[in-house]
DNA sequence: ATGGTCGGTAGCCGA
């Protein structure tokens, strides 16, 4: 079973690319971020025609996440628990039956947090705190759990093209990296780093200043696995070629292959 | 030193 995450930066602008990618990459489950669409405007029919069930948690103009899956989820939960006043659509969880049990796939779009020193950075850290609390509860189930998405976190210095450029950014500040490390210390495993020691590896290249052409990228899209999910991990791939397509997203898909079989 | 590019929306904001 192949599970992928991709920040598509607007589903309306990317629907042709999304269809081309689904056909070529053929993920069993796809986690999409920044759909920038309300649920009613998501191009559901075109995706369903490819054989996917579509679950969205949309929002007008900004944010918004979606879960596409070849099998119907047994359960879907929208919104990250822990703050009933949070109106931003950044989290959706699906439960899927597999041979021998079930897996939980969470699609998350973690706040960017810039500029530092504003309520935006405080919101990012609060959101990461809520995510860690959620992750800890899911870990206690001792089931395969996959937390996939745009974390807006550069985990290590070698995950960015120039530390000097990023050292004061919300994506790389020590407090941000410590909050991400908390997930690892709970027992979650970075799927890409569990299968590759290649450096650097990037999943995002800014549209500005020719970053793609100069390979000035950062690795901020991650699949974090509970131990039970990591047990079934076979390989990962960063689908870098997608960044060279016409009208690309600034992120590329990151995928992990598992030995789970749909039930 | 500055601004550079997108998407979505509305006459700028978020990234």
TrEMBL record:
Organism of provenance: Sinorhizobium alkalisoli
InterPro entries: AP_endonuc_1, Endo/exonu/phosph_ase_sf, Endo/exonuclease/phosphatase, ExoIII-like
Positions that bind Mg(2+): 7, 34, 150, 152, 250-251
Family that this chain belongs to: Belongs to the DNA repair enzymes AP/ExoA family.
Annotated site, Transition state stabilizer, chain positions: 152
Matches recorded under CDD domains: ExoIII-like_AP-endo
Protein name: Exodeoxyribonuclease III
Keywords, alphabetical: Hydrolase, Magnesium, Manganese, Metal-binding
Cofactor: Mg(2+); Mn(2+)
């Amino acid at each position: 079973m192949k599970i992928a995450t991709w920040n598509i930066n607007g589903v309306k602008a990317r629907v042709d690319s999304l269809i081309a990618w689904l056909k070529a990459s053929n993920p069993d489950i796809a986690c999409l971020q920044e759909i920038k669409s309300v649920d009613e405007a998501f191009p559901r029919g075109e995706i369903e025609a490819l054989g996917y069930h579509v679950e969205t948690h949309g929002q007008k103009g900004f944010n918004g996440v979606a879960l596409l899956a070849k099998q119907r989820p047994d359960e879907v939960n929208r919104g990250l628990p822990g703050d009933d006043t949070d109106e931003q659509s950044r989290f959706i969880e699906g439960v899927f039956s597999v041979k021998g049990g079930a897996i939980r796939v969470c699609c998350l779009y973690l706040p960017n947090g810039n500029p530092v020193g504003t309520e935006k950075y405080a919101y990012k850290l609060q959101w990461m705190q809520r995510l860690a609390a959620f992750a800890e509860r899911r870990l206690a189930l001792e089931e395969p759990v996959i937390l996939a998405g745009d974390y807006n976190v550069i985990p290590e210095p070698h995950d960015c093209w120039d530390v000097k450029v990023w050292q004061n950014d919300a994506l790389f500040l020590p407090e941000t990296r410590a909050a991400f490390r908390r997930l690892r210390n709970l027992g979650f495993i970075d799927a890409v780093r569990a299968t590759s020691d290649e450096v650097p590896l990037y999943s995002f290249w800014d549209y500005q200043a020719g970053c793609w052409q100069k390979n000035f990228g950062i690795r901020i899209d991650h699949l974090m696995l509970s131990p039970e999910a990591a047990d079934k991990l076979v390989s990962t791939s960063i689908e870098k070629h997608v960044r060279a397509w016409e009208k690309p997203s600034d992120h590329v898909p990151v995928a992990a292959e598992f030995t789970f079989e749909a039930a």
